[in-house]
Design brief:
The complex is a heterodimer of chains A (about 375) and B (about 425). By secondary structure, chain A is mainly alpha-helical. Chain A contains 15 helices and no strands. The radius of gyration of chain A is 22 Å and the shape is globular. In chain A, about 55% of the residues are buried. Chain B has about 425 residues and is mainly α. Chain B folds into 2 domains: about 100 residues, no CATH class; about 270 residues, ABC transporter involved in vitamin B12 uptake, BtuC (Orthogonal Bundle). In chain B, α5 packs across α15, α6 packs antiparallel against α7 and α6 crosses α14. The longest helix of chain B has 28 residues. Chain B is globular and about 60 Å long. Chain B starts with a helix and ends in a 20-residue tail after the last helix. Classes of the chains: A mainly alpha (about 375), B mainly alpha (about 425).
Chain lengths: ~375, ~425
């Protein structure tokens, strides 16, 4: 008789456990010394078990401590989580309108580009400059996302292809502009922009990299929650996402819903870009987006496309990223392990039937209905 | 949703000689305008072409007989060809081009536009034509293999966004296994197995667990990137000589054919993987459209319920098609390492798997269409490199955007209708 969200939480937790098991196997297999002890497992098993336990527990301990072991690691987790939450919200929002937005990466780049440009090109008073740069970031992302929504609404082109392609266009646009006078730092030959003016930077918490952008992210969460749960527009978005034909029959404009959803999704990803350039990086480079745009898709999936879920998922991924860096430093276990963990978690979550089969959780309800084709 | 009655009542004007639905008419005009814009750009480029000679060097580095180059006066040639593009665009806008003549004229349009562009970009300089063609083929080979893999999956109704992941897994397996065993062939076999492994994950999750296939594809790409990156960091990076030094396949010239100037050098002086790609194009086309199994694949991709009704095992055919796609994609992955550059590096496929996906869609889910689209993508990517070398006025970043923008234009419906197999991406539940 458990409630749906409890069941989902159980499946999510089980997926994390399963992913950690997969990661542990990888750690054991890939460590030459540990693998060697398995060579004589049958003659003296304790050695292999001991060595494996040590390798795995060392790696996971430093992962855990690097993410949550004290204020400094926690602040680093929050720093990593900030853009993931915002871009993840964008992907979630589009998801709720039935759109699969793979374009967070491109929208993030567009946002960072505009925010950074405003940040270093003008000299303005303190608060005004930051707000203006932030607005520019939102605008850049919204344009990049809204274009997809508009094309989808007008021509029926599939958003997955459009967003994948526009990701590349945004990246090359940024790379090109970084070689021109528009963005390139005077006197430099490598693709890097000037540093964002102090007036446009997010203030930091003393002694950490944590910046005010985290609060902005939480505000965005509240805004998206309100939009989806309380506003008429949000109702229309969800109706279109659930069944576009029915929504059309009920007199809603499906095309308008798509455009609005992608505008908002792009703005949120653009906010993430602004946070990157105004909060942590300061100059623009072509690596400004990192893999945030792609990770935000997995964040949205892990968060079940709900605002609160996205925050939790963003924090989990932020913790994995922050902890992964410490793990790499301390135990030489490569950071790429966290990528495997993240992918595996989402893979298991996307297939709840599999997780239930592994843990013998009783199936209730219909499960996730996420199957849609190119023609949808 | 255009029903006939409203169309009839609205069209009070006399019916034109060629019957054309309003939809077709709109599409023809849209496409014509687009072509005219392109042609206009061509005219503009031609107008700004320097009045010098442009040289197209015909022999590559490997040529036995250094052929003389083709020298053309850049300005008049560019102007003449730009005029050709305008003529074709106008012809389509006013009359509509179709049939064999249409295909021929569009080919002329494309060729004329490219040569106009080259005249402008390389006026007074030497453009290495044979290098361009060879590079195009090299870049297009994995794209073609990846797109063919996608065709096999998607014709059977399983969306494959994970081509990039199959590439990465294949490239990694090929590099490591070829180094360890000392045999490039073993590397290729390993790549095929790695491609099939990712395909198997795709198949099981998509067909058995009915996971959303686009989500699944994205996650599998992240997974493959993570796992190859992790193994690379952990094992391979420190000991390149032991694990990551496979060498590159050597070219095997085909007798007689390889001595044809330009063409022979481009197409018949290649590695076995490239020849495999030629074969794959032919085989996939033949199998899909001329064999019983191919018919079944297309049936389960278009209308699984009907296929099931006549006794086709829908899920089994889908598994077979996805795994067969894995074989082809694995070959494409092998090309990145043992076929071209040698060693593996993290994320060395650099998004080419997504370009293969774009080629598949541009090619309208047809193996030959996908091949042509992949060649186009390969051509622009190679051109970008060449133009950087000969220092043309156009920034190379802008040129490298071309394939992506072209895909956006294509899926936005300007170039005809792009329609996926009907049941593509829909899990089948026996009812």
């Amino acid at each position: 008789m458990s409630r749906p969200w409890v069941r989902e939480l159980v499946v999510s937790f089980a997926a994390v456990i399963l992913a950690l098991v997969v990661g542990a196997v990888l750690i054991i297999v890939s460590d030459a010394d540990v693998a060697a002890t398995w060579g004589y497992f049958f003659s003296y098993p304790p050695d292999a078990l001991q060595a494996s336990w040590t390798a795995v527990s060392d790696a996971y301990t430093s992962l855990f401590l690097g993410a949550l072991g004290g204020w400094k690691p926690i602040s680093e987790t929050l720093v990593q989580a900030t853009p993931l939450i915002c871009a993840g919200l964008g992907v979630s929002l589009a998801f709720r309108a039935g759109l699969f937005n793979i374009g967070a990466q491109g929208q993030l780049i567009a946002g960072a580009l505009c925010a950074g440009w405003v940040g270093f090109s003008f000299e303005l008073p303190v608060v005004v400059h930051l707000l203006l740069a932030l607005a520019a970031g939102l605008f850049g992302g919204a344009v990049w996302g809204g274009l997809v929504g508009l094309l989808k609404a007008r021509t029926g082109a599939h958003e997955v292809i459009l967003t994948i392609m526009l990701n590349y266009v945004a990246l090359y646009l940024l790379q090109w502009l970084l070689t021109t006078d528009v963005l390139q730092r005077p006197g430099r030959n490598d693709p890097i922009s000037p540093v964002v003016e102090q007036t446009a930077q997010f203030p930091n918490w003393p002694g950490t990299r944590l910046h005010l952008g985290f609060l902005v992210a939480l505000l965005a969460v509240a805004a998206v929650w309100w939009l989806l749960a309380r506003s008429t527009t949000g109702f229309q978005l969800r109706a279109v996402g659930a069944n576009p034909e029915a929504a059309r029959t009920a007199g809603m404009s499906v095309g308008r819903a798509y455009t609005i959803a992608m505008l908002a999704a792009g703005a949120l990803a653009g906010l993430a870009g602004a946070q990157q350039v105004l909060g942590t990086d300061y100059p623009l480079t072509d690596g400004i987006a990192g893999s945030v745009g792609f990770d935000s898709i997995t964040v949205a999936l892990l968060g079940r496309a709900s605002p609160i879920g996205t925050v939790v998922a963003g924090l989990v991924f932020g913790a994995l990223n922050a902890g992964g860096l410490q793990m790499q430093l301390q135990t030489q276990t490569p950071l790429t392990l966290t990528t495997v963990l993240q992918a595996t978690i989402v893979l298991f979550i996307a297939a709840p039937a599999l997780v239930r089969a592994v843990f013998r959780i009783r199936a209730e309800g219909t499960g996730t209905v996420l199957a849609k084709g190119w023609n949808a | 949703m255009n029903d006939a009655t409203t169309t009839l009542t609205r069209e009070t004007a006399p019916v034109p000689a060629t019957l054309e639905s309003p939809d077709e008419r709109r599409r023809r005009i849209r496409m014509g305008v687009l072509a005219l814009v392109l042609a206009g750009i061509g005219v503009l480029l031609a107008a700004f072409t320097a009045p010098e000679t442009v040289t197209f060097a015909l022999s590559g580095q490997l040529a036995d007989s250094p052929l003389s180059a083709i020298k053309l006066p850049a300005l008049p040639v560019a102007l003449a060809l730009a005029a050709c593009t305008v003529a074709v665009a106008l012809a389509h806008l006013l009359r509509g081009l179709s049939g064999r003549l249409g295909v021929l004229l569009w080919a002329v349009f494309g060729l004329a536009f490219v040569v106009t562009f080259l005249c402008w970009a390389a006026a007074g300089k030497t453009f290495p034509l044979t290098n361009q063609l060879q590079g195009t083929l090299n870049l297009a080979t994995p794209l073609i293999l990846g797109a063919l893999a996608g065709v096999l999956c998607e014709r059977a109704g399983v969306i494959n966004v994970a081509i990039e992941g199959q590439f990465l897994a294949g490239a990694f397996a090929a590099a490591v296994l070829a180094t360890v065993t000392g045999s490039l062939l073993a590397g290729v076999v390993a790549a095929v197995l790695a491609g099939v492994l990712i395909a198997a994950m795709l198949a099981v999750f998509a067909i058995r667990y009915r996971v959303n296939q686009v989500v699944l594809g994205v996650v599998l790409v992240v997974f493959a990137s993570g796992i190859t990156g992790f193994l690379f960091d952990q094992f391979v990076k420190g000991e390149s000589a032991k694990f990551n030094n496979p060498g590159v396949m050597s070219a095997v010239p085909i007798p007689v054919l390889s001595s044809i100037p330009v063409i022979g050098e481009t197409f018949f002086r290649q590695t076995l993987l490239v020849y495999t790609m030629y074969a794959a194009v032919a085989i996939v086309t033949f199998v899909l459209f001329k064999t019983r199994w191919g018919l079944r694949v297309r049936a389960v991709g278009e209308h699984p319920r009907a296929a099931d009704t006549v006794g086709i095992k829908v899920l089994r055919v889908r598994y077979q098609a996805v795994l067969a796609g894995g074989v082809v994609a694995g070959l494409g992955g092998a090309f990145f390492t043992v076929g071209f550059t040698g060693g593996f590096d993290k994320d060395l496929t650099a998004g080419q798997g997504f370009i293969a996906l774009a080629a598949l869609i541009m090619g309208r889910w047809h193996p030959l269409g996908a091949t042509i689209a992949a060649l186009f993508f390969g051509f622009t990517q190679q051109l970008q490199g060449q133009l950087q070398i000969i220092e043309t006025p156009i920034p190379s970043e802008l040129l490298i955007m071309a394939p992506y923008l072209a895909t956006v234009v294509a899926v936005a419906g300007l170039v005809g209708r792009v329609r996926a197999p009907k049941a593509d991406g829909e899990p089948y539940v026996k009812g």
